[in-house]
């Protein structure tokens, strides 16, 4: 029985398509829709159009549901197709002025306004007092709301499309029992850095309108300041934000080395998507790295006899 099943739904008809391998599925942690690319072998029956729905299952698992955006022909027999999931519509731009909403409520507002399908949406709890988004991509509107939430709570969320339903989940729920090591893929590149997005001192300021004085909130890590020098992050606070809580949350978020691992042609697992967290254990000469790291992007290559993935992994707590 075939592992790959790909269907195109066009004007009330369903076509099960013959495909020239591989089928490629790509997802990112943020800022991009899920993408499916495949080559269809044309026959007399098959007829389909931009905007038609595509469904892809592999080995009995539901992988992708989305819509055709691009068709390309280089010969009469093969049509190259690019389909995106619902997050493609987050490239739309709009203007919003909202008050007293959580990031989850912002997402529900966008889903309703653009007639999309919602799925599991976590309660993000933090209320954003007010925000104006002028002619901004929906991706940007959502990213701003989630970024404000993370900076105030320390909790990170991932927005993704799960087989035709938009979901927003705490990144912890996307943690997988998978271990990647240097044997897992064909090639890897591992980088650690304190050069970007690493801060060991957080300094937040607010003008107190009643007293006319400036309030300063500081959180810092003396040991890392000794090791790295002062790497300072500064920002201003909005009305209603708890300065010390936010400073502490930012220090917890940024007071660490950034880590990046690119590993290619890893043995495939259909659960891995942008935003998933996996275990990583690598022997790098004089050092053993044992981390949980998050997939910034995952690119799956599906064949009848094989399934591989290219992973870009970032961050993660260092586990000695």
Would you kindly provide a written description of the structure presented here, covering whatever features stand out?
The protein has 320 residues and is mostly beta strands. It has helices at residues 103-113, 138-153, 222-228, 243-254; strands at residues 4-10, 13-16, 19-28, 35-41, 53-58, 61-73, 78-84, 93-101, 118-121, 128-137, 157-161, 166-170, 175-181, 187-193, 201-207, 214-220, 232-236, 258-267, 277-284, 287-302, 307-314. It has four domains: 4-85, Baseplate protein-like domain - beta roll fold (Phage tail proteins - horseshoe like beta roll fold, Roll), CATH 2.30.300.10; 89-163; 172-194 and 257-314, Elongation Factor Tu (Ef-tu), domain 3; 204-248, no CATH class. Strands 1, 2, 3, 4, 5, 6, 7, 13, 14, 18, 19, 20 and 21 form a 13-stranded mixed β-sheet that branches. A three-stranded mixed β-sheet has the order 9-12-11, covered by helices on one side. Strands 16-15-17 form a three-stranded mixed β-sheet. Helix 1 (103-113) runs antiparallel to helix 2 and helix 2 packs across helix 4 (243-254). The longest helix has 16 residues, at 138-153.
